[in-house]
Amino acid sequence: MQKGTIIGLLACASAFALSACGEQQPPAPPPPSVGVVTLKTESAPLLNELPGRIVAVETAEVRPQISGVIRRRLFQEGGFVRAGQLLYEIDDAPYRAALAQAQGSLANAQAAIRSTALQAQRYKDLVGINAVSKQEYDNADASAQQARANVAAQRGALQAAQVNQNFTRIRAPISGRISRSLFTPGALVQAGQADALTTIQRTDTVYVDVSQSAAQIIDLKQAMKKGGISEAQGARIQLILPNGSAYPIEGRLQFSEVTVDPTSGAVTLRATFPNPDGLLLPGMYARAKLIEGERTQAILAPQQGISRDARGRATAMVVGKDNKVEMRQVTVDRAVGDKWIVTDGLKAGDKLIVEGLVNLRPGTVVKPGAPQQVTAPEGGAAGQGAAPADKQGGAH
User: Fold this and answer.
1) Is Signal there in the keyword field (predicted)?
2) The model scores a pTM over 0.85
3) Res 319: pLDDT
4) What is the pLDDT of residues 281-298, one digit of tens each?
5) Assigned CATH topology for domain 64-91+169-195
6) pLDDT at 122 over 70
7) Which of 97, 135, 213, 350 is spaced 20 to 30 Å from 62 by Cα?
8) What CATH class has 34-55+204-369?
9) How far apart are CA 168 and CA 335, in angstroms?
């Protein structure tokens, strides 16, 4: 009996020890921490980056209007010239001679007027007493009229000769920067020649011509008609130079072409930019950021919180009820700085997960907190725009 009692006591002790071990199992791991951003509605500018070409406000190709040999060039290549400034002198000896000849012809014609007029007057008196025939009087009167007409013709010839002589001094038609001279002193130039002597361009203000597809313009106008998008005030434009730097002065949209180019399906937009330092050169290509409008009540989601699933659809992870993770399929319109404009799938008040997304699954209980690398969106524009995203995705 004592042996059986001992065995029973040992069995009870073993069971007690096992029970105690079960109560001392390690606790469950804490929920993973994630960084969340609480979304809210705000206004967002709709930016469109378009290729553009810089054009001078005024361009004048200087060409000779008479033929002759260049005697002097009177400007510094690449310098600034003013309208009316003397640029070239052409040898004017032939034109001075032509002017003197025209002056002599005019004087001769004017002298002929007096003799023919006096003769016509005498014949008029004589025909009254039948001293001369009516035909002789008519001939004398016609000669007087021809003399007066010849004076008018010679006066016109004199004016033409004076104009030609003035053309021997070629002046700047506009003010601006003048390019290199394609002809040197001693070169023969001709009226109507194909090559210009030089070119003057006014560049204190320049045009930037950009092309926008007709489809984009239609999309914007339809969105404005449906509401939610307001037209940009003043149509501000920013310019990105060929080296990637931003031009410090904003431009203004002047007008858009009234027709669509049938070859490219694009519409030309023209903007003006001040160019006080001459940094913008005609012919230079640049990229223009056009503020087309403003989307009111937009949801701006940080790009770190938008990803793609295996089918390429844009998705987002949000913290739902009881801190459980929910997956949302979203639709993004375009990028504004480092954020996407979300048009469907997210709403104001949603807690978008932007950090701690690795191996995170829907239904997981998480501990939300402030993100370390991503800041919550503030009111107004969230930076300057990037290239438009695909409307069904386009997220990272």
Assistant:
1) yes
2) no
3) 92
4) 999 999 988 776 777 888
5) OB fold (Dihydrolipoamide Acetyltransferase, E2P) (2.40.50)
6) no
7) 97
8) mainly beta
9) 60
